[in-house]
Design brief:
The chain is of the alpha+beta class. It has 3 domains: 23-56, no CATH class; 104-195, Winged helix-like DNA-binding domain superfamily/Winged helix DNA-binding domain (Arc Repressor Mutant, subunit A, Orthogonal Bundle); 208-380, 2,3-Dihydroxybiphenyl 1,2-Dioxygenase, domain 1, CATH 3.10.180. Helix content is 36%, strand content 16%. The strands form 2 sheets. The chain has a 9-stranded mixed β-sheet with strand order 9-10-11-8-4-7-6-5-12, covered by helices on one side. A 3-stranded antiparallel β-sheet has the order 1-3-2.
Length: 396
Amino acid sequence: MPGEPGLCGVCGRELASRQTGRPARFCSRACRQKAYRDRASGRDSGAAVAAITGPDGLLAREDSAPNAAEKAVPHLSESELLAWRGLLEVHARLLPTLDDELSSVTGLSLSEFDVLYQLWIRPGGRMRMKRLAAALLITPGGATRIVKRLENDKLVRRLSRAGEQAVEAELTAPGRERLAVAMDIHFAGVRQLLQRPLRRGDGDARGDLAPARSRAFVTNNMEETVKFYNGLLGFPVVVTLQLPNPDPFPGAVPGNLGGSRHYFFRISEQDTVAFFEFADVEVPADNSLLGAGNHLAITVPSEGELQKAKKLLEENDIKIKSDLDHGFCHSIYFEDPVNKIALEFATWQHPCDTAQPFLQDPNPVPAALAAIGADTYAEHQLHFEPDGHGGAGERD
């Protein structure tokens, strides 16, 4: 249990013993920083928080007056100080999030990923250890310890030459394979974190699943739907998408959704409502039907968390009906086995707001073009063929 002697105060993992210094409280930097974040937001991480904030903790001497005025810093202006604090806060909050995501999916820490990446970008996939340490911004001893761990996993090998003290680190074939997966996960996470506002609590495990951000329905008339939701209710059109063909949701609803329109309206800061247009006009849109039309969409914060969710579902014999990259979000579709409710887990890859809409439909309905504006549509229009895997062809 977290907080017990010899166990991490946050995750409960067994702690490595120390020969000198104080006993360790946390198993990693990510857990240590999570304990600090929890304390700052008023949450309790068990003994970890108590160890920090208790009578003998690290913050025991902190001024407890909540409204005490801070002293001015003579060395920096107020704007410079705020900028510096912001940089430190972004670093402290985002790095643990990226580290947790990367390690949970690939088993690599950020520091191990950085070693593999630095080797990968160099000609021949090798570097001298001294130069590698400099590129990593750590001591040569620190670089050696990381490389040893990677060498034990056969992801890196060290090379030495007779008569020379210099030792090189070289990326192995298994290392390249592991790095390819890790880069997809890591840089997708970086992109998403850069595109969304920093919120207190980022990186908290309890934030893995967010409330529903989208409800999707079907319509036989996208033009009139836009007129109602945008023209009358005033909800901005933030996504215009043409679905892949053939139908990416075969059998989910009567009729054919292949090549049809899929539009999103922003109804609040966090929520959207979406519509699929039935191309087959002989089949009336019926929103009592489950499947591609009427389903509950739940946001997950990153590509790494989406892959974890997919693995969990598959391990519990929940069939993934579709795995689609729409370009603005990556989604997996499945069904509640008890109540037969169609569900979607999605990670958003694009802001999809009025400032940065996702506009791909090559032939938008007139009402949408009028609502968005022809110039704005032309400025933001994305020219690619939908294929369910992010789109074929380069985007303008």
